[in-house]
Structure formats: structure tokens, C-alpha cells
Amino acid sequence: MSMDEARFEAAMTTSQFVAQMQENQETFISNYQQAEMDEADLAFFRSQGPLRALALVEDWCPDVVAALPMLAKLADALGDDTLKLRVLLRDQNLDIADAHLQDGAYRAIPVFIFFDAQMGELGHFIERPAAVTNALQQAGAEFLAAHPDYPPDRDQRTEEQNAAFGAYRREFRASHRHEINRMLIADLRQLLT
Questions:
Q1: Averaged pLDDT score across all residues of the chain
Q2: pLDDT at 156 over 70
């Protein structure tokens, strides 16, 4: 991966990313507006700064639409002098994606890469907190238990069944947004500790 100051600065701001979104723009904006900052978290990130964060994303991804608004709200609350955030599209930056594969094999997103002021990589976060994955799996299992006519394998379900399952997961994320955001911030704090 070749990430230097020039490439970082040439990347999109969050506002530029939102302006070019083709999917999920309204959900992204809503998630950003509803993100809540905790003073203890702000103090923690202030104590770590100055930091730079690069988000590798695509706008169709539910994990991007769930996590990036929280990171963007955090960066906006702290200001560029403490946490400067830039955004790149994964599919146009495969060298970065391939340097940060999930389980060494998957180009999962979002990827949040944190750097110090000299662009030395401090660590990276991929996709979603493990606790969120577990909660989504449990919610999915509960949904399928309530719909015994739905096959457990998504490839065996009809389009309508997959749409209903997807709608349930979106509603679960929306109704648990605050807890999911807290899990994300906890993981990011752990990453930088």
C-alpha cells in the first residue's frame, strides 16, 4: 500500500463522499445526525491526536452506512487538528483494500486506517465490531425462527424473502444504532490504546 501525505490529502472529505453517493445517502445523513458524542470519548481521542483516519468504503454497503457516519461525527467534533478524516472508494483503491483484507482473504468494508501525523500507520479496523456481528447473527436467527418457511441459506430464499430479511436487519440496526455506535467507538479506542 502506498499511502503518503499527498494521497491522503487528495482523498475525499466526508462531505464530498456524501455528495457523490448513489445509494443510501438519506440513511447516511440520518445516521450522522443521530450519532451522539460522549465527552469521555472526545477526551480520549484528543489525547491521542493529532490523528489521521482514512476510510475505505462503498456507498452500497450497510456496514459503511452504519459506521462511517459515527466516525465522521467524531472527526467533525474533534476538528482536523485532532482527527482528520478522508475517504476513498474501495473499488478504485484496491492496493489499500488488499493490504487490509479481513481474515487475510476478503475485501470487507469499511476499513478505517489510523495514522499518526507523519503518516505512520497506527492500526486499522475492518467491517464492524465482533459484538455487532454477533448481535446481527442473533437477530437473524430470531427472524428465521419466526419464519420457519424461510430457508436458512440466503441463496435458497426467494427475492421477496431476502428483501424481508434485509428489511428486518436494517430495522434492527436502526433500533440499536446507539449501542452499535458505542461498540464501534469502543473498538476504535482499543485499536489506538
A1: 93
A2: yes
Give the pLDDT band (50/70/90) at residue 105: confident
Instruction: Residue 116: give its domain's CATH number.
Output: 3.40.30.10
**What's the pLDDT at 3?**
83
- pLDDT reading at 2 higher than 80: no
- Residue pair 119/52 in contact (Cβ under 8 Å)? The answer is yes
Half-sphere exposure of 188 (CA within 13 A, CB side): 31
Kindly provide the residue ranges of all beta strands, DSSP E only, lying in 49-174, ordered along the sequence.
51-57, 83-89, 111-115, 121-126
DSSP string of 7-42? HHHHSBPHHHHHHH-SSSHHHHHHHHHH----HHHH
Number of domains in the chain: 1
For residue 104, what are the domain limits?
Answer: 5-192
Amino acid, res. 120: G
Find all residues with CB under 8 Å of 56, minimum gap 6, and list them: 88, 89, 90, 93, 96, 97, 100, 109, 110, 111, 112, 113
Bridge partners, residue 3, by sequence: none
Q: Is the pLDDT of residue 49 over 90?
A: no
Residue 25 above 90 pLDDT? yes
Contact between 66 and 128 under an 8 Å Cβ cutoff? The reply is yes
